[in-house]
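Exercise 7. Given the encoded structure of a 256-residue chain, write a plausible sequence.
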């Protein structure tokens, strides 16, 4: 895989989970990384220490991606402190479960704000700078198998991920002439903090594992490897696509 030396990457939600592994991997490929966190500075510092341990370069910027002013600042800091921003990984995401008929307005607003509004306006800030500088770029959204597959009791999450599927497709066409590619990575069940409750409850975990042909959860590093590929020169001609990484979960069907 070609390296990312000389590139700058912003990775949202990189204080934990998949985002942390992506930040570490992109830095390992030579990119300077903007580590974004909303509430967990400790996690962001841990990401930075791990990057520094292999002589990588990073800065930490606090941003709540659901606030447009914060998304602009995230991109501004990349340009001011690192001299540009070539790769944007929209990773930050939340999920809240409830029966549809009981879902509170506050949960709808929170999930759609982080998972869809955030990537929308952060990508806008990213693109404006590139357009003005006449530079190309990469947008990689961490979506989910649930951009396409149902997830009962998680209607807000599915609405947000379905939204980011169409946002990706739309922007791939609109931004292609600017030399900016846009793709989604759609993980299935990955061992991360977002899944903690499910992973520690065998009554929930075991039926899920039975649905995964490869018989295990995925790892954060496996997702990060796919992101590194999409960020690399080798992926220059790829835009407008979703890359599923789910151990076969989406394609599974059993008759008992
Ligand atoms: C969700 C997990 C879920 C997985 C597979 C992910 O997008 O965050 O909660 O287990 O999809 O259904």
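Solution.
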């Amino acid at each position: 895989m070609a390296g990312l030396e000389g590139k700058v990457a912003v990775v949202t939600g990189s204080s934990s989970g998949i985002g942390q592994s992506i930040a570490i991997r992109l830095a390992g490929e030579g990119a300077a990384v903007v580590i974004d966190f909303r509430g967990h500075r400790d996690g962001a510092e841990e990401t930075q220490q791990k990057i520094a341990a292999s002589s990588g370069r990073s800065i930490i910027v606090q941003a709540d991606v659901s606030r447009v002013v914060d998304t602009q600042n995230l991109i501004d800091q990349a340009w001011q402190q690192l001299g540009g921003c070539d790769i944007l990984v929209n990773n930050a995401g939340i999920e809240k479960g409830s029966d549809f008929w009981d879902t509170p307005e506050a949960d709808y607003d929170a999930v759609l704000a982080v998972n869809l509004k955030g990537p929308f306006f952060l990508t806008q800030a990213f693109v404006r700078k590139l357009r003005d500088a006449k530079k190309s770029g990469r947008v990689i959204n961490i979506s989910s198998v649930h951009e396409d597959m149902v997830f009962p009791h998680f209607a807000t999450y599915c609405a947000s991920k379905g939204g980011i599927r169409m946002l990706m497709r739309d922007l791939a066409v609109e931004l292609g002439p600017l030399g900016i590619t846009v793709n989604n990575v759609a993980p299935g069940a990955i061992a991360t903090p977002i899944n903690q409750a499910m992973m520690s409850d065998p009554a929930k975990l075991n039926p899920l594992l039975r649905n995964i042909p490869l018989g295990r959860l995925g790892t954060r590093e496996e997702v990060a490897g796919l992101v590194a590929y999409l960020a690399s020169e080798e992926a220059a001609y790829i835009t407008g696509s979703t890359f599923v990484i789910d151990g076969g979960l989406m394609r599974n069907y059993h008759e008992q």
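Remark. The chain has a mean pLDDT of 96. Students should compare their own answers with the one above.
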